Amino acid sequence: MGEVAVQLKIMPSSPDVDLKGLSDQITSQVADYGRMYSCEVQPIAFGLKALMITFIVEDKEGGTEAVEGSISQIGEVESVQAVAVTRML
Prior knowledge:
By secondary structure, the chain is α+β, with helices and mostly antiparallel strands. Helix content is 24%, strand content 49%.
């Protein structure tokens, strides 16, 4: 089986959330499902910022759902949205 790159847009619950700490917590939370490839902070509006994180996960049915579900359980996360899924070559 191959791997896919999954880009997720993760919205914190408030503008006061420490995004570096949240990124570290997300990385450890999804370690069983895949590995982080990149992490960027994207300004949204009014001081609110989102994390744009790309994970490398196994290409299998429901692969992104497990990662999204795991991240959404973190208390400082308001929402998780898959933005792109690309097969790795």
